[in-house]
């Protein structure tokens, strides 16, 4: 069976509702995060990227599995990618949250990425307030790897938001 190529706005809104109902602290990231910051969908998105409070890793995995997701890539504690025939791909990233609003995430070499508090914010999209990575955070998160066309597209939007 062919896999779902893109996550729709409806998929996104469903996943955000599921997460909001769970009370797990999270932030939307990646391409959908950029589009939410900009207030409109600008391109197709393969997945939904979610950064979340690492102390709830088992809870978020159970929640997603209850909604038809199965783990496809497990690079814990860095990230996990799950797939649902109904909702498509979701990429989850556990963050260890500091009391001062900062966070850190494990990297693949056994070290840490560290993030300042101003990377975490909210944006209004489709009539709701969504926790998401700020434009400044998105700019940093779009470094350190070879950029694809979709990343360059997102960076143009991020740069316009930072002006």
UniProtKB/TrEMBL annotation:
* InterPro entries membership: Aminoglyc_AdlTrfase (IPR019646), NT_sf (IPR043519)
Which Pfam family name is an example for this entry?
Aminoglyc_resit
Please name the SUPFAM superfamilies in this protein's record: Nucleotidyltransferase
Task: Tell me the domain of life.
Answer: Bacteria
- Supply the name of the protein: Lincosamide resistance family protein
Organism, by scientific name, is: Anaerostipes caccae (strain DSM 14662 / CCUG 47493 / JCM 13470 / NCIMB 13811 / L1-92)
């Amino acid at each position: 069976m062919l896999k779902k190529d893109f996550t729709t706005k409806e998929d996104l809104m469903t996943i955000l509702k599921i997460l909001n109902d769970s009370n797990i602290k999270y932030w939307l990231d990646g391409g959908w995060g950029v589009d939410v910051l900009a207030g409109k969908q600008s391109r197709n998105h393969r997945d939904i990227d979610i950064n979340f409070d690492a102390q709830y890793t088992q809870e978020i995995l159970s929640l997603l599995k209850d909604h038809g997701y199965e783990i496809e890539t497990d690079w814990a504690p860095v990230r996990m990618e799950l797939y649902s025939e109904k909702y498509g791909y979701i990429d989850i990233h556990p963050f260890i949250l500091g009391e001062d609003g900062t966070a850190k995430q494990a990297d693949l070499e056994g070290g840490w990425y560290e993030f300042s508090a101003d990377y975490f914010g909210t944006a209004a999209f489709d009539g709701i307030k969504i926790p998401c990575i700020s434009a400044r955070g998105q700019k940093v998160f779009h470094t350190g790897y070879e950029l694809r066309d979709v990343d360059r597209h997102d960076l143009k939007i991020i740069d316009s938001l930072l002006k």
